[in-house]
Design brief:
Layout lengths: L1 H8 L16 E9 L3 E2 L2 E2 L6 E9 L4 E9 L6 E12 L4 E11 L8 E10 L2 E8 L9 E13 L2 E12 L9 E13 L2 E10 L3 H4 L7 E9 L1
Antiparallel strand pairs: 1-4, 1-14, 2-3, 4-5, 5-6, 6-7, 7-8, 8-9, 9-10, 10-11, 11-12, 12-13, 13-14
Length: about 230
């Protein structure tokens, strides 16, 4: 199942905070350096560091497009994500976001794939569903469900809680066709940047995953938004 593990390592969802409703047209950019690149609980850099960055455009109507990229440690490639969608508000407290992601691996076009997503926010609670009809490297249908909650601890420190569940149309880890991931994170502004610290783990062990990439990890990051 090494190839299936690799498939999970190869797909990275952009790190972005989605506003409930766009107020005006804007262009934003971001860059980050992290001690590990975690996607759905699994390291994509075999525990090594990654540099990431992207930019997006958001219109007054709620329509947005953008791109995001990261270094990776396999396929002799990089990951480039292209995305677009529409976000808005149903009420003062409830927001939504629907869109499409295209995952591009230059030089490895057979690994490229498309994923659609839907998000609903209620206050500080975020629920998402992601779906791909043909996941990375032809591994079939895949769903990903998440719940995230964040709140302020004071002194500009924010605590984030995350739970995710990956479900596949076929067995991908031995006899398993699903697994869970979870993390707890802290973030705070510092000298014009944002520092973050995250503890991450999954429901899998080395035998399920086929490598140490599913083990618990502590990740430090520094990012800058423009």
């Amino acid at each position: 199942m090494k190839k299936l593990t690799k498939a999970l390592l190869a797909t990275g969802l952009l790190s972005a905070t989605f506003a409930v409703q766009a107020q005006e047209a804007s262009i934003a950019a971001n860059v980050a350096l992290k001690t590990d690149y975690i996607y759905r609980g699994i390291s994509q850099t075999s525990g090594g560091s990654a540099i990431q960055g992207g930019f997006d455009f958001a219109s007054e109507s709620g329509f947005y497009v953008g791109t995001w990229a990261s270094s990776i440690t396999f396929d002799d490639s990089i990951e480039i994500d292209y995305y677009g969608g529409f976000r808005g508000a149903l009420t003062e407290e409830v927001g939504y976001d629907i869109g499409v992601l295209y995952y591009d691996y230059p030089g490895m076009s057979s690994d490229d794939f498309v994923e659609v997503y839907g998000k609903v926010t209620y206050g500080s609670l975020l629920a998402t569903i992601n779906y791909s009809n043909d996941f990375y490297a032809g591994t079939g249908k895949a769903w990903y469900y998440t719940l995230d909650y964040g709140f302020a601890l004071g002194n500009d420190v924010t605590l984030g809680l995350h739970y995710g569940f990956s479900d596949f149309d076929q067995d991908v880890f031995g006899t398993e066709d699903s697994y869970s991931d979870y993390n707890v994170s802290l973030s705070a502004p510092f000298a014009g940047t944002t520092l973050s610290l995250m503890y991450n783990n999954t429901s899998m062990d080395d035998g399920d995953c086929g490598s140490a990439d599913c083990e618990a990890a502590v990740v430090f990051g520094i990012s800058k938004a423009f």
